[in-house]
Specification:
Distance between the termini of chain B: 23 Å
Strand content of chain A: 15-25%
Largest sheet of chain A: 4 strands, antiparallel
Largest interface: A-B, 44 and 44 residues
Largest sheet of chain B: 2 strands, antiparallel
Structural class of chain A: alpha+beta
CATH architecture of one domain in chain B: 2-Layer Sandwich
Helix content of chain B: under 10%
CATH architecture of one domain in chain A: 3-Layer(aba) Sandwich
Structural class of chain B: mainly beta
Bound molecules: flavin mononucleotide, iron/sulfur cluster
Strand order of the largest sheet of chain A: 1-2-4-3
Number of helices of chain A: 8
Number of strands of chain A: 7
CATH class of one domain in chain A: Alpha Beta
Shape of chain A: globular
Distance between the termini of chain A: 43 Å
CATH class of one domain in chain B: Alpha Beta
Oligomer: heterodimer
Order of helices and strands of chain B: EEHEEHEEE
Shape of chain B: flat
CATH superfamily of one domain in chain A: NADH Oxidase
Helix content of chain A: 40-55%
Number of strands of chain B: 7
Number of helices of chain B: 2
Radius of gyration of chain B: 16 Å
Chain lengths: 247, 107
């Protein structure tokens, strides 16, 4: 162990930041290439690989080193199907109240908008549209992935546990893509926390909270690749006291 | 300084019934000459935006809620797809502090 640490320190002293304009290194390339996979092969991911991935999550930074995460691995296809069915049913029910796109119904549209304002994260226009797609079974939940990793957080931990679980999950995701596996973050599993059946079966009760999940498997086709995205304005208070905005 | 919402926009929610006015949906351009009809882009899209018609991929005409993620662009082995329009929400959910689109840049 001590030798390993020493070796890594020696290696670190040799690592230098890139020169301006230099080619991307392997880590940068991996980050830029990662895309969400929504179409998987039937082949199961072997247990050792899943455990190897979960190990990367364990070493993520967390507020006060509290490690407030709890991972639930589901490889039971019947169970994945059953959870999917129940979430689809939930989305169908929700659409009955707020889907104002089917026909002319001003009251429904007004209700939907009020709810969107009150539950702005949950019902942001994008998940709002996805809710309809899931209800109509035009969008899958875990997209046929053979492995699902459900992520809970401990509500009593320092800071904001959702930040910690996000970091831990992304460690795992990036490692998975470095093996050529596919992943997709799936927060549409959260309706499960409202269903007594799944609260019981998955053991979701205080102090645990279901936050999100990750679909994992061998992708069909090659989903990974570079894409173009909007830049965002970065405010910069420079060393010389000046201020600028960069993109 | 961060961009903020106009007061009057805080209470106005975009309606998907007012496309163009409240929302400009994302859009992709698919070159039918390059498309082999493999269907991978249809599966990749989280927004049900693309459909296969006569072995060619095309954007759906009814409610194609594209959020310009470019997952379809990335998966197409034929390079048949390009981003044409990035999603714009124009009222309460307006994206703030956005600049023009760029691929990964090497500074
Ligand atoms: C917290 C979180 C939740 C997500 N939930 C879903 C989901 O429920 N279903 C889905 O298909 N994609 C989901 N995604 C994937 C996003 O749609 C995707 O990351 C985004 O469109 C950007 O595309 P990219 O991952 O290929 O770069 C989620 C992503 C994150 C980070
Ligand atoms: S991924 Fe490319 S080749 Fe395949 S159907 Fe879509 S556009 Fe056509
Ligand atoms: S950019 Fe994303 S949302 Fe738009 S069509 Fe392509 S995959 Fe679908």
């Amino acid at each position: 162990m001590a030798e390993e640490t020493k070796a890594s320190v020696e290696k670190e002293t040799k690592i230098k930041p890139p020169d301006s304009g230099a080619e991307f290194n392997e880590v940068e390339d991996l980050i830029y290439r990662r895309r969400s996979a929504r179409f998987y092969k039937k082949q199961q991911v072997p247990e050792y690989l899943v455990r190897r991935l979960l190990e990367t999550a364990r070493f993520a930074p967390s507020s006060g080193n509290a490690q407030p995460w709890k991972f639930i691995v589901v490889q039971d296809r019947k169970m994945i199907e059953e959870m999917t069915r129940d979430v689809v049913a939930f989305c169908k029910l929700a659409c009955r109240f707020i889907d104002y796109l089917d026909g002319w119904n001003p009251l429904k549209e007004w209700t939907a908008k009020l709810m969107q304002r009150l539950m702005n994260n949950l019902l942001h226009p994008i998940p709002f549209a996805a809710l309809k797609l899931i209800a109509e079974e035009k969008l899958g939940l875990w997209h046929g992935a053979p492995t699902v990793i459900i992520m809970l957080t401990d509500k009593r931990c320092p800071g904001d546990p959702a930040v910690d679980v996000g970091i831990a999950g992304e460690n795992l995701v990036l490692a998975a893509h470095s093996y050529g596996l596919g992943t997709c973050w799936v927060s549409f599993c959260t309706p499960l926390k409202m269903m007594p059946k799944w609260r019981k079966r998955l053991g979701i009760r205080y102090p645990y909270k279901l936050v999100t999940s990750i679909a994992l498997g061998y992708p069909r086709g090659v989903p990974d690749g570079y894409v173009t995205r909007e830049t965002s304005a970065i405010d910069w208070f420079a060393e010389d006291g000046t201020f600028k905005v960069v993109y | 300084m961060p961009e903020h919402l106009r007061i009057r926009d805080r209470l106005r929610i975009e309606s998907f019934k007012k496309l163009g006015q409240d929302v400009t949906l994302g859009a992709v351009e698919i070159d039918p000459a390059k498309c082999t009809g493999c269907g991978l882009c249809v599966k990749a899209c989280a927004a049900g935006t693309i459909e296969l018609v006569g072995k060619k991929a095309r954007m759906r005409t009814v409610f194609p809620i594209c959020h310009s993620c470019a997952d379809c662009v990335a998966i197409c082995a034929q390079n048949a797809i390009q981003m044409k329009q990035f999603l714009e929400l124009k009222k309460y959910f307006r994206y703030l502090d956005r600049g023009k689109p760029e691929p990964p840049r090497r500074f």
